[in-house]
Each structure stands twice: as C-alpha cells, then as structure tokens.
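Anyone else keep sequences and structure tokens together like this?

Example one:
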Amino acid sequence: MSVKTIILDWAGTTVDFGCMAPVHAFKKAFRNKNIELSNEEIRKPMGMLKIEHIKQLLSLEQVKKQWFELYGRLSEEKDVLSIYQDFEKYLFADLAENSHLKPETKQAMKKIKQLGYNIGSTTGYTKEMMAVVLNTATMEGYRPDYVVTPDEVDSLGRPYPFMIFENMRHFQNHSMEEVIKVGDTIADIQEGKNAGVLSIAVTEGSSVMGLSLEEYKQLSKEEMERLNQQTAEIFYQHGADLCIKNLLELAELLQEHSTIPKLQTKKRESA
C-alpha cells in the first residue's frame, strides 16, 4: 500500500530552526521561581504537551533538590500551573518572531504537494499558540492541509498517538502504511511508533541538535556533517526508522519510490 499522508511537526521541523522559542520561554519561566535549567535539560522532553513538559522538568532530581531548598517542600500542581502561566506569557511574546520557516521548508513542501501527498501536522503547542505560528508560516508560504493540537484530542498529546489518528481520520487513510510521521524530537518518534507508522527524524535544526541557525552556520562543513551524524544516532537509539538532514531530502525520498517501500517491508518483518 502506497504512502498518501505526510504528518509533520512544527517547531524544529518546518519552522523555528533549533526549536528556540520554547527553550527560551521555559528558561525564563523557571528562572522566575529561582530555578536554573540548562538548555539540554529543557530540550529532553521537547515535543510533549507543554504542561506535561513542565511536570517532567520539575521531576528532575536537581530541580526537586533546588525546589526543596528554596521552598521547604516539593512542587505541587499549583506550582505547575504558575510556571505554565509564565511560560505562556513569555512564549506568546516571542512566538511570531520565532516561527519563521526553516530554510528548505517552502521549497520542500511545494515539491511534496506536487507529488500528490496530503500534508498533515501535529504539535506540542496549544490551539492558541498554533494560531500565531500558523499565521507566520502562512505569510511565508507554508500552510499544511490539516493541523491538530493536543487540545483537540483531550490533551492526550505526545507520546500518545491520537493526534496522528485524528490526521488519519481527516484524510480518510485506510492503513498505517499510508502514513509517515516526520519530526525533530524524541517525542515525535515515540508518537509515530505508538501510532504504528513510519517515523522519520529531521536532524538539521532539530531540538535534539540544539543549535540556532546562526550557530549552525558558523560550523565548518565537516562539523555540520559530524553533528548531523551524532544527532541521527540519538534518534536511531530511540526507534527512528530513518533520519534525514532536512525536508528537501524527504521530498527526494518520496519522489524516488524505493527507500520508503523498503522501510515499510523492514517494519512489517520486524513486527
């Protein structure tokens, strides 16, 4: 059965090279509570529903220790909500500015649409956040056929597969083999694996790589290649079926009609 639908993530995959907007917002929101987090710590749960992301960060041993030393108790639900409110405030302040298309997105999406594929999407952003992101992306020339946020699946975002299933319902896909999930976080890969679809990771500009476009451009070609390989290894360790550098590589794969069927056969045989 041939692939008909490509489901893409947003920040770090199609927009916001390096997935910088949520990193900055999480850092500021936790700093308001006098908790310091490294970018690496912040990025680890990236792709999840944002309030769940905050809970994951609060569960880190060093964060629990800092919190107890500061407040004489462990964090509670009211603290999660307070941090989330600050996170939303900081995110909305910078979201439009940090939602520009990644360099290859417009060209790649044009090619994929010309090949006749449906383009769906899932995200860790809420519907309100996505309205900002979608507006910027549309003005710059990219608008997928369908957008699903966690709010639309009872807040059961990644790693749950329900946003993918909602895309499949919309496009009336008959089988998991008609769908490919593409993303830049471990949560994206988990979402795809849990849905039973081919799961492809983008390395360049990904949250896992963790560099802004300016930082990435300063690297030599050899450094870029080495960093993409290191990032791919992390994705493969978490079950990615394939890693690509960017979305133009995805368009090429979809056009040549051989790699994807081989991956599907391998997936069936390993099931």
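And example two:
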Amino acid sequence: MTRMIRPDLAQLPTYTPGRKTDDALVLASNETSEPPLPAAIEAMTSAAHTLNRYPHMATSPLHHAIANLHGVTVNEVTIGCGSSSLLQQLILATCKDGDETLFAWRSFEAYPILSRIAGATPVQVPLDSHHRHDLNAMADAITDTTSLVILCNPNNPTGTLVTEDELEAFFARVPDRVTVCIDEAYLDYTDDELTPDSLGLVRRHPNVCFARTFSKCYGLAGARVGYMIGSPEIISALNRTQVPFSVSTLAHDAAIACLNNPESKAERVSQTIPQRHRLRDFLTKEFIHTSQWNLTEDDIPESQANFVWLHLGEQSEAFTDALAKEHILIRCFSGDGVRITVTNSKETDQLITALRSIA
C-alpha cells in the first residue's frame, strides 16, 4: 500500500486535555469559573449576525486595539487562534526539518508536540530543584541547530516565575540568530511587583517576542484567540505561516470588548490571587503535616499563575483518583505531579473540604 501519512506521526503523543464531567468541580484546565465578560457576550451576540462574511485578516481592529494597549505599531502585532496556534506558527517560521526547539521540562505539554509536527527536534531542559527554569542549563544547551527557545513564564504547570533580571542575563547568552518566545498565558495573575517588562525586553532584544491569550482571566477559552508582539521581522514571518481567517469574527469582537473593559478583568484577577495564596497556605501549613501524602513545602512552589503545583511523583495518579472520588477533577502528570486550578472563594471552599477528606 502506498504510504500516505508521515510515519513519524504514529510516534507523536496527542495533547491530553483536562477531564470534564457534569457532576464534578473541574479544576483541571486552568479555566476561569466565570463566563465571558458581559461586554464580550454582547459583542459576540452582535457579531453573530455577520457570520455570512469571512472574518478579518491582516490588519484588523483587534490588531489596532492591542497595539494601542502596548504602545506599539500594528506591524509589531499579530493575532491567532489562541497562543498555542501562534506558537505553532512561530515554530514553522523559525525551524527547518531537524532544527531544535529548546524549552524547560516540565513545561506546557504542547511544546514537544507542536515542535515535532513542524519537523523540529524538541530539546527539554529539566527544571531546577525549585521547579523553576534552569536558565544557565538552558543557555548551555543551545547548539548550532537551535532555532527557537520557548520560555513559559509563569511556567505551566509549576506556576514559577522567571524575573526580568534573570531573563536579561539569559538573553545575553542567546545568539542573535536564535528566536526566543516568552509564553505569557498566565502573566495576568502575576503579582504586580514581580511582573517582567516584556515589552522592554522585546525592545532591547529584537530576537525576543511574547505571546498572550484571552483564554484565562477574560474567559474566552472556547473562543480561541491570542496575540503575539515582536519585531516586524518576526511578526511578518508569523503572518506568512498563519492559516487564513483563523480568528473567527466572534473571537475577534469578543477580544476587543475585553480590552475595552480592563476594570472587569482586574476585578476577576483580584478575586483569584487571594484564593491562590489561601490554597497554598492551607497545603503548606496544614495539609502536608496531617495527611498520608508524602509532601513537603518544597514540593509546592510559590505560584504566580491561577493554579498550584504539587510535586507528588509516583503518588500523582492515586492523589488524582482520590480527589475524583470527592467529585474534584484536577490535572495529573503521571509520575511527576498534579496541577490544581484556582478560581473563586466558593470553589476553593469545596476543594479544601475535599482535600481534608482525602488527607
């Protein structure tokens, strides 16, 4: 039989989303528990009447809104079907067959999948003992075939943050020919005093870009829209690797509505961050001292995202199953740890009650 499909795809792992059931509290996919902002729902309802027409391509009103938000030109902005899609475009734009992508591990599990789909070779550099990017080891791992470095900041699934000073020191060791993307899907949940000036980094390093998403605090995970900011050279290349009309009219108009309502986003974030602190305090001050699970405070790093990481190792599946019996669904990374999404006070109450039950 004639071979029709690339044989290497048979060895490619598929992305595994968090579990969902109707009778459980879902804390597995880092979604907000709230629906989209009211302004976004209104915008999508209005846009539904225009779906007989193709959506915007090239420079759109959303491009201009993002450019105004960050104080950049529109040729430094591109939008895509979520930040994951933009990362796929970036890999296609920077890597030839056999070129290397470099990223920390564990990090966002789509990185090796997206790399191999594009024909690139993923290189994984272990996190350090504090569950953070080991930037020195990553710099040492750059080779003549490295084309792209991806830094998830805050890191998914550990929630740990790389500071601006640490990023600067790392970029000083990265050759200009290597593109670096900072994946900032969770940056909205970072404490203000710790938030890196990503735009300043892009200005100082033309080989650096950053990606953001509307999936998290804006509540548009189901709409699929994100954006990337970088030099005109990087953005032009991304536009060439984009699937035409990949951002729907509904997603486009909803995203603009979100940007026009920053106070609503800020309110949501301000409700989530205290629950993150509350959950980690419970885990480190009560749970690890009274439970059957072999955990120390070092296994639960300080998070700057809307989730908390528990480095449970071989206990991960049993812990996940125990919570599932309490109708709480979390994300299990078998043999490594679990990630628990943080949402609002009511759901944190339910989670803590369940954790006490499985202690």
